[in-house]
């Protein structure tokens, strides 16, 4: 069985092939780049905010996705805003993410998708089992949150099966802090298009 730290690094290698370890993990401790403001994170342009779980930080940003890592908890949390008007659109984006990570089985639900309300927002939740390319089990908890503004936030916690319960609690605490306003409009880009 791979160690939890090893699992996290293996997961990072799958997500960000072709980068150095320092780039993958955000560099040496203390050089992680800009810290999230006041213990939270604002997804620029999307007007979606969340509070960073204690002991967690953004270790990588790739396009609209942020990968959060912790020095004390095994696994990773992926945070990605998108244009979602239904749970199916959020799940479709999740499926594409699984395919891009080359996970085997593209996710078998151990807890099928169900709808709920989190932080006053409509949400879809599911628990998913899959395997990495070396056939090691990877379990995930998914929360897709829909805002009344035609946007949404996909949250995905991934770890080993034995650590999922703890990481699930962290993910649910993060989801409970999400706040969404109407997305900002890039007036300069609109002017250039006109």
Which secondary structure elements does this structure contain, and how are they paired or packed?
Elements (H helix, E strand, L loop, with lengths): L3 H12 L5 H5 L14 E4 L4 E4 L4 E7 L2 E6 L5 E7 L4 H14 L3 E15 L2 E11 L5 E10 L5 E8 L4 H12 L3 E2 L6 H7 L1
Antiparallel strand pairs: 1-2, 2-10, 3-4, 4-5, 5-9, 6-7, 7-8, 8-9
Structure description:
The longest helix has 14 residues, at 87-100. The strands form two sheets. The protein has a seven-stranded antiparallel beta sheet with strand order 3-4-5-9-8-7-6, sandwiched between helices. Strands 1-2-10 form a three-stranded antiparallel beta sheet, with no helix packed on it. It is built from five helices and ten strands; from the N terminus they run ααβββββαββββαβα. Helices cover 26% and strands 38% of the residues. It is of the alpha+beta class. It has one domain (4-15, 41-181): Mog1/PsbP, alpha/beta/alpha sandwich (Protein Transport Mog1p, Chain A, 3-Layer(aba) Sandwich).
Poorly predicted runs of 5 or more residues: 1-38
Helix content: 25-40%
Compute the average pLDDT: 76
Largest β-sheet summary: 7 strands, antiparallel
Tell me the β content.
Answer: 35-45%
| Amino- and carboxy-terminal Cα gap | 57 Å
- By CATH, the superfamily comes out as Mog1/PsbP, alpha/beta/alpha sandwich
CATH architecture: 3-Layer(aba) Sandwich
Structural class: alpha+beta
Q: Strand order, biggest sheet?
A: 3-4-5-9-8-7-6
